């Protein structure tokens, strides 16, 4: 039976959401190709996570558990996965188009002298071809991509296009051990340390989000966002600029490196609308922008916009609601 | 320290988008072309690294048609010491796999480099594949979405963006980086009148792909149809007249007319 291999990504001791989206995306392919869905998980002390991965429908997990993999090192991952792929001979290798997947997969594809399907929104099999949709010009145009199934195909799946696979505790799968493969030349890259914020607040279920960006101006001034959200019965969102500045914790970040949200109302205050932010909120039902700049790209996705100083407009709006 | 910084010409953000004219070479108005905005952060990083070291040279490398001349000149006007354009007018090679092979071959031909810098993605194709692919073709270590670079002898200490934080890595030179639009290089410098003069006088060599010994660069994955998504039913309603209270009133009554109740969550 042919195989589809999914690279299981973990962070802070959890399987990340985008891996679950990859599994959903791959299920239909597995049916079309009568292929087995298998996963590979690299890390240190990841036995529990390997078992957990089987609960999402992966029939077999190759667990590569080694102290040398305690921190992510792309050269170690590339070398090790190269060896595994050569042994398994899968038809398709899939990873999330997370920052990790986007760094790893092109490198791996190039090692097999293969192009890849980068950041795909849709994926299907048509005869002996694989077809995928990739966004161009920050989602203003779309390109279809095609590749033959006779080749080994590498795919990264863009987030927010498929529901995450649900955990099903009745599912079981086999866990197979595989050893890391690391050559001396791979030690040209050394993991030093990682700083990741803890997440304690979940804003993804909110029906209304009042979201603040760099335009809010300071940590003190950011209080207005919390206050308005509270009075309107919503939660607080933020751009990465506001999070990086330390005005609001990471829990509130929306976008590529934060949460994806689809509330009934999204009020973007002092947020310019960089694509990295838009990918996390553009599917909100009604988007209201408050911005001093009529040219801000946020207006390309907003349904309503007030051009003005958020510190004057937002209190008015809160008062009227 | 010899740094190569890879810059791409794309259709300008403000130019009309047409699925049949997505390559700079398809246009004849220079105003329709811009430097891929993310590449300016890479140029900024390259210049800062050289300035901090007190020695070195930054060369901009671009695969593009003559419409990309504007872009290589802008790179010099920002401060790059030289530039090379690889001619791509007739073939319009755009598949990222082919581009990566050509750029890697160009780096090989240039020969002397310590650091290869890329933008974090392109505005047009946005595959973000270039830095990792080129690093593999040249067998160099790589780090993407880098916000901070520290040169320590023949090593680099970099800080890169990850979901929810940052990761520090140490890379042996020569190495490949893609530079984040945030962090230390968030604000690329402007061109100056003096530098624009220099740029206009700088000769930019144009190389042919044939000179590069690329080998086979036919991709096994091809871009096919390019299409516009269905247009939005309604454009953004903009309230920009009057004082804040008036604009808010207009918004609130428009929402009410549409049956949207912003007050439903109190
Ligand atoms: C790898 C990577 C991942 C990233 N991931 C994310 C992500 O997940 N989420 C994210 O948000 N960003 C992300 N970013 C950053 C992103 O590229 C932008 O830098 C960021 O979104 C900008 O935030 P901003 O809109 O708040 O700030 P800016 O772009 O500086 O915009 C500020 C806006 O406020 C307006 N303004 C100023 N003053 C006022 C006022 N008084 N009233 C009203 N409006 C005002 C301005 O007109 C402007 O439009 C990422 C970047 C990288 C490199
Ligand atoms: N034709 C090109 N010429 C030079 N550099 C390029 C070219 N295409 C892409 N790049 C570089 O690769 C980066 C990533 O592009 P992409 O992989 O297309 O998202 C860009 O930011 C540029 O630095």
Write a structural description.
The complex is a heterodimer of chains A (321) and B (266). In chain A, 26% of the residues lie in helices and 31% in strands. Chain A has 321 residues and is an alpha/beta fold. In chain A, a hairpin with a 2-residue loop joins strand 2 and strand 3. In chain A, helix 3 crosses helix 4 and helix 5 packs parallel to helix 8. Chain A starts with a strand and ends with a helix. Chain A folds into two domains: 184 residues, Rossmann fold, CATH 3.40.50; 118 residues, Rossmann fold. Chain B is of the alpha/beta class. Chain B folds into two domains: 211 residues, 3-Layer(aba) Sandwich (Rossmann fold), CATH 3.40.50; 37 residues. In chain B, the strands form two sheets. In chain B, strands 9-8-7-10-6-1-4-5-11 form a nine-stranded mixed β-sheet, sandwiched between helices. Chain B has a two-stranded antiparallel sheet with strand order 2-3. In chain B, a hairpin with a 2-residue loop joins strand 8 and strand 9. Chain B starts with a strand and ends in a 9-residue tail after the last helix. The mean pLDDT of chain B is 95. Chains A and B meet through helix 3, helix 4, strand 7, strand 8 and strand 9 of A and helix 3, helix 4, strand 7, strand 8 and strand 9 of B. Strand 9 of chain A pairs antiparallel with strand 12 of chain B, so a sheet runs across the interface. Bound molecules: flavin-adenine dinucleotide and adenosine monophosphate (AMP). Flavin-adenine dinucleotide sits at the interface of chains A and B.
Characteristics of this structure?
heterodimer; A: 321 residues; Rossmann fold; 8 helices; B: 266 residues; 2 domains; 28% strand; globular; binds flavin-adenine dinucleotide; binds adenosine monophosphate
List the helices and strands and how they pair.
The complex is a heterodimer of chains A (321) and B (266).
Chain A: E1 2-8, E2 10-11, E3 14-15, H1 17-32, E4 35-43, H2 47-54, E5 60-65, H3 74-88, E6 92-96, H4 99-111, E7 117-126, E8 129-136, E9 141-148, E10 153-157, E11 174-177, E12 189-196, E13 208-212, H5 223-232, E14 235-238, H6 240-244, E15 265-269, H7 275-281, E16 286-291, E17 304-307, H8 310-320
Parallel strand pairs in A: 1-4, 1-6, 4-5, 5-11, 6-10, 7-10, 13-14, 13-15, 15-16, 16-17
Antiparallel strand pairs in A: 2-3, 7-8, 8-9
Helix pairs in contact in A: 3-4, 5-8
Chain B: E1 2-6, E2 9-11, E3 33-35, H1 37-53, E4 57-64, H2 69-78, E5 82-87, H3 96-110, E6 115-119, H4 130-137, E7 142-152, E8 155-162, E9 165-172, E10 175-179, H5 193-201, E11 206-207, E12 221-227, E13 237-239, H6 244-257
Parallel strand pairs in B: 1-4, 1-6, 4-5, 5-11, 6-10, 7-10
Antiparallel strand pairs in B: 2-3, 7-8, 8-9
Helix pairs in contact in B: 2-5, 3-4
The structure holds flavin-adenine dinucleotide (FAD) and adenosine monophosphate (AMP).
Flavin-adenine dinucleotide (FAD) sits between chains A (99, 213-215, 239-242, 253-258, 270-272, 274, 276-277, 280, 290-293, 296, 309-311) and B (120, 145, 161, 180-182).
């Amino acid at each position: 039976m042919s195989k589809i291999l999914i690279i299981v990504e973990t962070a802070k001791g959890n399987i990340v959401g985008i891996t679950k989206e990859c599994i959903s995306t791959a299920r239909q392919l597995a049916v079309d190709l009568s292929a087995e869905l298998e996963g590979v998980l690299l890390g240190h002390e990841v036995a529990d996570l390997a078992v957990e991965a089987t609960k999402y429908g992966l029939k077999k997990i190759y667990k590569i558990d080694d102290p040398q993999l305690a921190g992510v090192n792309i050269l170690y991952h590339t070398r090790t996965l190269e060896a595994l792929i050569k042994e398994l001979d899968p038809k398709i290798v899939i990873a999330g188009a997370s920052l990790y997947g986007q760094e790893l997969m092109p490198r791996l594809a190039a090692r097999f002298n293969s192009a890849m399907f980068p950041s795909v929104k849709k994926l299907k099999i048509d005869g002996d071809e694989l077809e995928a949709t990739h966004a161009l010009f920050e989602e203003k145009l779309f390109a279809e991509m095609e590749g033959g199934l006779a080749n080994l195909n590498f795919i990264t799946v863009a987030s927010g296009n498929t529901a995450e696979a649900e955990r099903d505790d009745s599912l079981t799968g086999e866990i197979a051990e595989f050893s890391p493969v690391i050559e001396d030349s791979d030690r040209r890259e050394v993991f030093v340390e990682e700083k990741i914020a803890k997440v304690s607040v979940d804003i993804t279920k909110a029906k209304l989000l009042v979201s603040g960006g760099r335009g809010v101006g300071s940590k003190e001034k950011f209080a207005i966002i919390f206050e308005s959200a509270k009075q309107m019965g919503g939660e607080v969102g933020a751009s990465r600029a506001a999070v990086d500045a330390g005005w609001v914790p990471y829990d509130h970040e929306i976008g590529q490196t934060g949460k994806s949200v689809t509330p009934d109302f999204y009020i973007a205050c002092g947020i310019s609308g960089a694509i990295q932010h838009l990918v996390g909120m553009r599917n909100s039902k009604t988007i209201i922008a408050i911005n001093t700049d009529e040219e801000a790209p946020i207006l390309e996705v907003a349904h309503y916009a007030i051009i003005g100083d958020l510190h004057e407009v937002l209190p008015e709006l809160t008062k009227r609601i | 320290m010899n740094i190569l910084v890879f810059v791409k010409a794309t259709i300008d953000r403000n130019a009309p988008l047409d699925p049949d004219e997505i390559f700079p070479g398809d246009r004849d108005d220079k105003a329709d072309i811009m430097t891929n905005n993310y590449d300016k952060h890479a140029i900024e990083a390259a210049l800062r690294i050289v300035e901090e070291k007190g020695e070195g040279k930054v060369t901009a490398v671009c695969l593009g048609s003559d419409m990309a001349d504007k872009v290589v000149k802008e790179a010099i006007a920002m401060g790059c010491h030289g530039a090379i354009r690889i001619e791509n007018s007739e073939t319009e090679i755009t598949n990222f796999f082919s581009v990566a092979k050509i750029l890697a071959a160009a780096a090989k031909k240039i020969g002397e480099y310590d650091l290869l810098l890329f933008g974090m993605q392109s505005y047009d194709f946005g595959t973000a594949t270039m830095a990792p692919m080129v690093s593999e073709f040249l067998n160099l270590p790589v780090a993407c979405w880098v916000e901070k670079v520290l040169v320590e002898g023949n090593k680099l200490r970099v800080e890169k963006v990850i979901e929810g934080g940052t990761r520090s890595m140490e890379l042996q030179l020569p190495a490949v980086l893609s530079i984040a639009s945030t962090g230390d290089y968030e604000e690329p410098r402007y061109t100056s009148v003096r530098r624009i003069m220099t740029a206009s006088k700088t000769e930019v060599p144009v190389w042919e792909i044939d000179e590069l010994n690329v080998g086979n660069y036919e991709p096994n994955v091809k871009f096919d149809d390019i299409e516009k998504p269905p247009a939005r039913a309604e454009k953004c309603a903009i309230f920009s007249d009057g004082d804040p209270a008036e604009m808010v009133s207009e918004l609130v009554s428009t929402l009410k007319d549409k049956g949207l109740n912003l007050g439903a969550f109190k």
